[in-house]
User: What shape does this take?
Amino acid sequence: MHPEFDDELEDFDESHAPQGRSTFIRFLAAFLAVCLLLLSLEGYSILIHPEPDAPVALAEVQSFLPNNPNLPFGSHQADEVRQVLDEIRDPIKQVANFVASNACKSGDAVCQSRALFYFVRDRITYVPDPQFHDQLENPLVVLKTGGADCEDMAVLVSAFQMAIGNEARLVFVPGHAYAQVRIPHYKDQWLNLEATCKTCKFNDLPTDTQLQAKEFVEL
Assistant: This one.
């Protein structure tokens, strides 16, 4: 190699290489700092609001239900839904307490809310109603049969959430319904509970549902 070229290469290495290494080290340090921050935030969230465990089987909660309840169908009109939820407050509270206490030993409210949502998502099977059929099936009957359409699954989710002191409301979109919950002192926002979506986690919502026009029914 030509001596003059060697001198130029040495000058390049001395002037650029340290700066390049310094830039890379600063970038790497910043990247690691961001990763550690995200991990610490996630770990803090899990520590404060742990995920539920010890899932409860549907058969276990059925022992809390009345043997021969007189539970006629209603409609999904807001007043009738509220009336039904008021009438079944005690047995629904017993079921909610059982599911929440078994899944969340810490007593954390967010963990309990998740546990009740996952119970409906995982234990109740979606069974569509005939077209234009708009009858409300009592949540206790849903628990007895293990199947319901989207509206009735949303009502059951709402009943459970209200039983542990959360606010709940129904969300109607064209041809579908799901529930939302607001937990005191947590994020101060409505969280989505889409129980018919078996892959949806707490506060997840399918993209097509997000884009649809919504009607909210406060309970």
